[in-house]
Amino acid sequence: MSKNQSLIAELQHEAVSTRKSLERVKEGTYDFKPHEKSMTLIRLAGHLAEIPGWIEPTVNLNGMDFAKMDYKPPVITNNAELLALFDKSLAEGLKALESASDDNLMATWTAKNNGEVTFAMARIQVIRGMIIKHLVHHRAQLGIYLRMTDVPVPATYGPTADEYK
To answer: Quick one: pLDDT at residue 125?
Structure first.
C-alpha cells in the first residue's frame, strides 16, 4: 500500500466519527464554554471542521509562516454550515492526498513563525501528527462539550456511556 492510500484510509476512518460528533452540535449551545479560557462550542466545532483542509497546503507547499497568514476563523451560524464546512474540508484533504506521491509525502515541510523555524518534518509526519491527531484531540474536546450540554456523545472507537446497552 502506498503512503497516500494509508493516509486516505486513516482520514476516512476518523472522518466518520468526527462527522457524527459535528452532527450532534445543538443549536442554542453555540456560546457554551466550560471555562473562561476555553473556546466556545461553535468555535471548537468550526475549528474541528476545518482541520482536514490543512492537508492541501501541507501536500502542495513546502511550508508556512503562520505569522504571515491572513487566517480568519470560520463563522458558523447554523449546523448546515458547520457540516458543509467539514464536508468541503474533508474533500479538499482527500483530493490532495490522492495525488501525493510517496516522495512528496517524505519531503520536508517547514513551519515558521515570523521567519523562525518552529518545526521541520516529513509531510507524512505533519499530516499524521499535526493534522489527523489534532482532529482526534479536538473531537475528544467536543465530546466533553457535548456531555456538558446534555447531548449524547457518539461512539468513536467503541460505545460511549450514551450508546452502551
So the answer is: 98
Residue 35 within a domain: yes
CATH code for the domain in which residue 96 is found: 1.20.120.450
Domain contains 163: no
Q: Give the C-alpha separation, 132 to 114, whole Å.
A: 25
Number of residues in the chain: 165
Span 29-49, average pLDDT: 97
Smallest CA-to-CA distance from 150 within 45, 48, 43, 28 is with 28
Cα–Cα distance for residue pair 102/6, rounded to 1 Å: 11
Amino acid, res. 127: I
- Domain that residue 13 falls in: 3-148
pLDDT at 22 over 70: yes
Listed in sequence order, the residues at least 6 apart from 103 whose beta carbon sits closer than 8 Å to its beta carbon are none
Question: Do the beta carbons of residue 39 and residue 156 sit within 8 Å?
Answer: no
Alpha helix (H) residue ranges in 77-122: 79-98, 102-106
Q: Is the pLDDT of residue 164 over 80?
A: no
Cβ pair 28, 142 in contact under 8 A? no
